[in-house]
Amino acid sequence: TDLTCTYSADFGSSPRLEWKFKDLKDSQSYVVYDGKPTSSYASRVTLYGSNLRFSKVTRVDNGVYYCEVTGSTGQFGEVEVKLTVLVPPSPPMCRVPASVTTGGVAMLSCNDAAGSPPPQYNWYKDGVLLPADPNKISGFKNATYKLNAKNGNLEFPALTKMDSGQYFCEAFNTAGPPQRCAVKSMEVRDLNTGGIVAGVIVALLLVILLVLGVWYANKKGYLPSSKPKPSVVYQPTSLHGGGEEE
């Protein structure tokens, strides 16, 4: 991959040349400084004239490159080159909760870290494509999910039994065919209120039995008494008689 940078003779015969790189997160670094590739690029970048040649590029090389030329008398010029490395999508990683309760919140996620440009995402339920905006499709007007095609998140803010089904997602970009993850099942169950009430009742009965047991044991004297025991002080009898000293 070659990145070209040209300048006029007005900059002189040996102008100062630098290449800078800004990645997709706006982090900047030098590719060429003082006419030489920096240590992090020296193994795969060659400078010929004012141009750059990459022997190998990866997704991390996506971004904007700036060629800055400074002449001997102070002239300054800059050329901006945008580089997009094309990498087809890989099968994305999907996370789908297996069991959730009605009325709760569920987040289904999908991500492919390898594709470039960064892939976008579709979600399918029972083999049917879920529209990004369900309110615009007559068959999905009652749907409550929120789909973010850029980060792959499919959120259900208030689950219903109708949301149960088989889900998978698809990653796609302009570099190659789309890729899908394996199908995963999500079951929405009603909250077991009867079981919760029964559990609370059992816990209260256990507490009552414990209190009664402690009271009975204390009444029968099975527990050590908390009353302080009287202390006895022994004083030996005097060896002297009761007469007065001379």
Q: Could you characterize the architecture of this molecule?
A:
Helices cover 11% and strands 35% of the residues. It is mainly beta. The strands form four sheets. Strands 10, 12, 13, 16, 17 and 18 form a six-stranded mixed beta sheet that branches. The chain has a five-stranded antiparallel beta sheet with strand order 4-3-2-7-8, with no helix packed on it. The protein has a four-stranded antiparallel beta sheet with strand order 9-11-15-14, with no helix packed on it. It is elongated. The termini are far apart. One of its GO terms (cellular component) is bicellular tight junction.
Q: Which value, in Å, is the CA radius of gyration?
A: 39 Å
Q: Count of helical segments? A: 1
Main beta sheet: strand number and arrangement?
6 strands, mixed
Structural class: mainly beta
**What is the count of distinct domains?**
2
CATH topology type of the largest domain = Immunoglobulin-like
What is the average per-residue confidence, as pLDDT, rounded to a whole number? Answer: 86
The separation of the N and C termini measures 125 Å
Low-confidence stretches: 241-246
Kindly estimate the percentage of residues that lie in beta strands according to DSSP.
Answer: 35-45%
Helix content: 10-25%
Order of H and E elements: EEEEEEEEEEEEEEEEEEH
Number of strands: 18
Principal-axis shape equals elongated
CATH superfamily of the largest domain: Immunoglobulins
| Text of the CATH class of the largest domain | Mainly Beta
CATH architecture of the largest domain: Sandwich
